[in-house]
Amino acid sequence: MRHLLLTLALAGCMTAGAVAQLTQPAEGGNKKAWVGERLGLTDVQVEYNRPGVKGREGKIWGQLVHTGFTDPSFGTSKAAPWRAGANENTVIRFSTDVIIEGKPLAAGSYGLFIAYDPAACTVIFSKNSTSWGSFFYDEKEDALRVKVKPESTSESVEWLKYEFIDQTNTGATLALFWEKLKIPIRIETDYIKLQLETLRRELRSEKSFNPGWQSFNQAATFCLMNNVNLEEGLQWAEQAVNGTFIGVKNFTTLYTKAQLLEKLGRSSEAAAIMQEALPLGTVQELHFYARQLLQQKKTKEAFDVFEKNYKNHPDNFTTIVGMARGWSALGNYNKALEFAQQALPKAPDKANKDNLERLVKLLQEGKDIN
Fold it and tell me: pTM value?
């Protein structure tokens, strides 16, 4: 009986071994890899297998990687592109809608394929991301096709790789490198639209009251800095100032509201708000505001703020430098020089002292320091 049980157990192991596979490295020494990047608010991830050149220089593109579409003689596809890697599908995932080479593509996971051509490759995003390679590729499942121009590189890359290059705040180029070729795919996001959607959503969550005014002011500042949705930004600014339970009147909230009013052409209202804000400002806040007025060519208004800051804090390094900038903006370089020299002994560190010495030299030469 014991012998029979042992025989059955061994037979079961042999049967299971015929169908089960132990975890081992990918076939052919290919390397499994992932690469990802956050573009604005969008997460992009590529999962792929990395084939090697393995001594096949000059025989990769147009040979190992076939040109255009081909019948792989296996599976259901009769016109298959390259699988943009090795083994399973190369899969690319987007957490939000994106723009690929100027064309829209919805958020989701896609099988990534490339029909190679030395003049212009066809990059394909397939709704089928779970098949093996391109043996079962079906053009009816295409979500998007774009054309990109391959580029020769001077340095050879042994193992195929994807990299994010040429990054901006809203996009990047996903580049495939292998042997001496690069295939670039430009990805852009509608960052402004996505950010506004996120702000609207989060300002209806617990973040609307914790930390409260800071959240609404942050949202309003986004509209201000990007010159978008100014009316909506003003509503958020109003919540930061006067919202029930969360509104706080401080220099920051009043300044943001005033700047939005200014952009909306409501200058008299903006000026009134700033008069309310000025007594609440710190030395640094008022100095920054005055310098901003200088950039806007509002010289007299800037001088008044510099002077107010100085009168409240006459022994402060920043306010004394502010007076030097204010007098310089008015063209009185001698008066500006007096304040700049007065500030020198009060410089808090070498960097500030070096910069102030540079300003002193400019004033001695009769030049504006702003």
Answer: 0.79
d(CA 148, CA 175): 11
- From the number of C-beta atoms within 10 Å of its C-beta (0-12, 13-18, 19+), residue 328 rates as buried
Q: Which run of H or of E encompasses 312?
A: helix 299-312
Domains of the chain with CATH codes: 26-189 (no CATH), 190-281 (1.25.40), 298-370 (1.25.40)
Is omega for the bond preceding 314 within 30 degrees of 0, making it cis? no
Cα 305 from Cα 13, distance rounded (Å):
86
The mean pLDDT of the chain is 92
Q: Do the beta carbons of residue 31 and residue 50 sit within 8 Å? A: yes
Asked whether residue 222 carries a pLDDT value surpassing 90, the answer given is yes
Model confidence pLDDT, tens digit, residues 11-66: 444 444 445 567 666 666 678 999 999 999 999 999 999 999 999 999 999 999 99
- 234 exposure class (CB count in 10 Å sphere: 0-12, 13-18, 19+): buried
Q: Could you tell me which residue, 339 or 22, shows the higher pLDDT?
A: 339
* C-beta of residue 133 within 8 angstroms of C-beta of residue 147: no
For every residue of 320-360, DSSP letters joined together read HHHHHHHHHHTT-HHHHHHHHHHHGGG-SSHHHHHHHHHHH
For the chain, the distance separating the N- and C-terminal CA atoms, rounded to the nearest angstrom, is 99
